[in-house]
Amino acid sequence: MPNFKIFQDNPDYARIKVFGNNNVAVNTDISGNLGITSTGLAITAPANGLTVTAAADGLAITPPSNGLMITSTGLAITAPANGLTVTAAADGLAITPPTSGLLITSTGLAVTGTISTTLATTDVSTVRANFTNTSSSPDEAYNVLGIATWTFGVVNSSTVDDAQALVSLQISPDGQNWTDDMSNVTINQNSLQTFVATTFLKYARLSYAAVSAGSAVTLNIFFQGQS
């Protein structure tokens, strides 16, 4: 080609060359393909990060020593010593808790622990000594609203022969208005009588009197309950 000496004498000058920003030509392999070397593209995982490597039959992910492990057969989670362990079961998922923790079984949820069987009790006793009043006198009132089971026990411990007492069990909704639930039960000397309400109200008390003003009466009164 006349007047185009560049093609006749130096055809290499007609080729297009690609250079990087450092005025260095881009490298290719012997087949002309773009070459990426270990100094070109490198991905380095952090010390405690996630490593992804190629496996013959798929993808293998290697986690940190105490992290997540994905194997060829599934997913395995390894918990800390006192944590939660999840393992694969033949027919579902099995979760193994710590020794004193929560147990989840194939049939539902089971909570293993200690159930306290300790009951709260009430035990109060008073002595009403040597009274001769034949008019009924009310004794101490008790709030029985939170007591599941309760009973008054009265012992006539008088030292005078034939010293009898009349005792009534009274109940009230407000501690002000009272009605007899058991009326004028006679308790002889050296005898025990119990009093249990047949109707439930918030307050309960006993009322007592001597049968004869000439015979002084001494009563031991017990209030005992359980809730």
Short description:
The protein has 227 residues and is mainly β. It has one helix spanning 5-9; strands spanning 51-55, 58-62, 68-71, 74-77, 85-89, 92-96, 102-105, 108-111, 121-131, 137-138, 142-143, 149-156, 165-172, 179-187, 192-195, 203-210, 217-226.
Describe the protein's architecture and organization.
With 227 residues, the chain is mainly β. The protein folds into 2 domains: 51-111, no CATH class; 121-226, Jelly Rolls (Sandwich), CATH 2.60.120.380. It is built from 1 helix and 17 strands. Strands 10, 11, 13, 14 and 16 form a 5-stranded antiparallel β-sheet that branches. It has a 4-stranded antiparallel β-sheet with strand order 9-17-12-15, with no helix packed on it. The chain is rod-shaped and about 155 Å long. It starts with a helix and ends with a strand. The mean pLDDT is 77.
Can you tell me the residue ranges where pLDDT is under 50 for at least 5 consecutive residues? none
The second-level CATH architecture of the largest domain is Sandwich
Radius of gyration (Å): 48 Å
Q: Report the helical percentage.
A: under 10%
Mean pLDDT: 77
Shape by Cα distribution: rod-shaped
Reading the helices and strands in chain order gives: HEEEEEEEEEEEEEEEEE
The domain tally reads: 2
Describe this protein with a few key phrases:
Jelly Rolls; 5-stranded antiparallel β-sheet; 4-stranded antiparallel β-sheet; single chain; 2 domains; 227 residues; mainly beta; 1 helix; rod-shaped
Secondary structure topology:
Blueprint: H1 5-9, E1 51-55, E2 58-62, E3 68-71, E4 74-77, E5 85-89, E6 92-96, E7 102-105, E8 108-111, E9 121-131, E10 137-138, E11 142-143, E12 149-156, E13 165-172, E14 179-187, E15 192-195, E16 203-210, E17 217-226
Antiparallel strand pairs: 1-2, 3-4, 5-6, 7-8, 9-17, 10-16, 11-16, 12-15, 12-17, 13-14, 13-16
